[in-house]
Every structure is written in C-alpha cells, then in structure tokens.
Design a protein that fits this description.
Elements lengths: L7 E4 L3 H5 L9 E5 L4 H4 L2 H11 L3 E5 L8 H12 L14 E6 L1 H15 L19 E5 L11 E6 L4 E6 L7 E4 L9 H20 L8 H20 L4 H21 L3 H13 L3 H6 L2 H8 L4 H11 L3 H10 L10 H12 L13 H14 L1
Parallel strand pairs: 1-8, 2-3, 2-4, 4-5, 5-8
Antiparallel strand pairs: 6-7
This protein binds NADP nicotinamide-adenine-dinucleotide phosphate and fe (iii) ion.
The site of fe (iii) ion (FE) has 5 residues, from helix 6.
Amino acid sequence: MYFFIPTKIYFGCHVLKEFGKEISKYGNKAFIVTGRQSAVQSGVLDDLLPLLESMQIEYTIFNEITENPDIKSISRGKEAFATQMQGQRQALPLHDFIIAIGGGSPLDAGKAISIMAANDLEEKDIYNTALHKKAFPIIAIPTTSGTGSEATQYSVLSNNETKIKAGFGNELMFPKLSFVDPKYTLSLGYHVTRDTAIDALSHLLEGLYSNKYNEFLLPFICTGVKLIFENLHACLADLQNIKYRHNLMLASNYGGIVIAHSSTTLQHSIGYPLTTVYGLSHGLANGVVMKQIMDLYEPHIKKRLDDLFSFVGITKNQFFDWIDTLELQFEGKIDNTFIEKRTPEVMKSRNMTLNPFEVKENDVIKIYRELGSSG
Ligand code: NAP
Ligand code: FE
C-alpha cells in the first residue's frame, strides 16, 4: 500500500493571491498554456498576470489548446516554448517553467509540452515514456471541477486524424504547484459543470474498481462521491453559488488524487471513442456508460461498493435514479463499423489491465450495443 502525491496543492478562494509568490522559485520566464477563452473568462489571467509582473517574471501566452488536445497543438507548443517569436532556434530554452490554466485539456497539454520540450521529442515518441527523462516544472491552475489533472501525473491527448485518444503517465508530470480556487469555476455553464462533475465522479468510482485500489484512497473516494451526490443538483440550479462550487472542486481534486494511484479503468477506455467519433464531452462519455460499468464490475467489488453507498447513505438503486435525473444522453447510433474498429482499440488501451476482473471483448461490445440502441 502506498500514497504519493508530490504536488503542493493550495486550495480555496484567493490562494493565488495569498501563495502565488512561490511561483518565483521556478524561474523568471513563464510559458503560459491555455485554451482560447477559459483563462480569461475564469478570471485567472486577471489575477495571475499582475502577480507575475510584480515578481519580474516574463511570460509568453500560448492559447492554442482546444478540447481533447490534438497532438499537433502539443508540437506547436513545444516550438513556441523553445523558439524566439521570430522563429529563430535557440540553444537554450526560452522559458523556465510552464503555467497551465484551464480545464483538463490545457492542463494535460501543458504537461505534454513540458515533456516534449525537455526531451526534444517528436510527436511519434510522446507515448514512449522510456524516453521521458526530464520535464520543465509545471504549475497548474484548474478552471473546471472534473479531471483532477492538477493532482495527477497523466496527460491525455488525441490524434485528430486517426481519432485515437489515449493517455500516458509519468511522475515527472505531477505539477510542482497547483492553485485550486473554486471561484475560477463560477463562469462555467450548466453542461460543462454537469459533465465535468461526472468525470470527477467517474475517477472516484474507478478508484474503487481498479485493481490498484488501496485503503489510503477510501476516505477520498467516499467523501468525494458524497460531495458530488449532495452538491451537483444544487450547483446546477445555482451556478454562481461558491459553496457548491467549493464542494465540487474539492471532490474533483480528490478524484485526481485517487486516480494518481489507481489509474482509470474500462469506464474511461470505453468513453474515449465516444468522444473522438461522436463528439461527446469527456465527462458525458463516462456518464452514459456509468450504470452499465457499475453493473459489470459489481460482483467483483460488491463489498467496496456496499460500503461506499452505506457511507453516502443511499442504495445503488437510488444512485442509478439520481444518474437518470442528470439526463446524460447519447444520441448517436452505434454501427458495426464503429464496433469493429473501436473495440480492439479499447481492448488494448493501457487502462484495461486495471479492471477488477478480465474484461472480454464481448463485454465491451454489449455495452456499446446497449448504448446505441437506446439512442
Ligand atoms: P476542457 O476540455 O478543458 O474544457 C471544456 C470547455 O470548457 C472548453 O470549451 C473550455 O474553454 C471551457 N472552460 C473551461 N473552464 C472554463 C471556465 N472557468 N469558464 C468558462 N469556460 C470554461 O474540459 P475538461 O473536462 O476539464 O477536460 C477534459 C480533458 O481532460 C479531456 O481531454 C480528458 O481526457 C482529460 N482528462 C485528464 C485527466 C488527467 O488526469 N490528466 C483525467 C481526466 C480527464 P477553452 O477552450 O477556452 O479552454
Ligand atoms: Fe477523466
């Protein structure tokens, strides 16, 4: 049994203002990785840029990261990290560290850019962790309550050409510092709030499912699931409520701490093609198969699941009813081409070794077929 999170996590309102001076430990040239809008909409840049200026930290903003970051944007980030604006190649990196701001997409992109730049990797080598010998320090500022990427060693990337989405992990990618402030999630709308919370819920449940589960994780799993169960509907009805935002962000951070140990399982592997092929958000892709996955795993982890529901004070049936109230819809039709092409990908994804029993191809096909026929 072990517990290891090397990230210093500051959690709460205004943590950046209070503890942001620690950023200066990592150098005086920051490379900021963001999406197009969220770093502005969330208010992070309004807090961060004056702080950096007050510490004489220079910065470049790289805002080209889109949802489910494409490997090509990581290459562009690597070039921008290491190259002068005029395009001149430099012997020395132009930046000392990375500040990644956003949902899981920019956070994961920041991690991947750090690894790619530090090891001068090409795109084809990004998943070859044997080549990942060093990384530039990463500082994470999440703006969604979902992935927990601010507390994990994972980066999940997509290839927009092959439509394959896959993650990799390396302890070098744990952020050095994370500033987790629920006020940065107040600008999230209904659907991103719902879907990201479902992603966090999935991480917490997968901690329980994984064959790398250990008892250190139990308090995080139980408390996290209870927080989501008790706060998600309230938050969806009152998106500006900082107390509900606080509770969802805590649960999301717990989910990150959990999967940093347990990793994810079939639940995530089966969801990736639903995102790349049908365009479902990451959280929704997990959510639409959540009940089927729990049914599949239940006989193998019954005691853990019973203990969880007893802690939350509900039954499994009540939990299923609650999921139904969230109206997580898959509107596509799963056809044979999808099944034939995507099932083998799911079967060989890295998370499949972590299921609580040996999942067979037919189990995956059955879940996809049930999903498609209900759409
Ligand atoms: P996301 O893809 O980062 O963002 C979703 C959308 O929300 C984007 O349009 C984004 O805008 C917007 N947004 C983010 N924060 C906002 C805010 N505060 N206000 C207004 N809009 C905001 O969503 P995510 O669900 O957090 O991340 C999903 C990705 O993380 C997936 O690729 C998933 O596979 C990965 N993931 C990683 C881990 C891990 O451990 N590393 C775990 C689970 C999932 P912009 O485009 O402007 O940013
Ligand atoms: Fe996830």
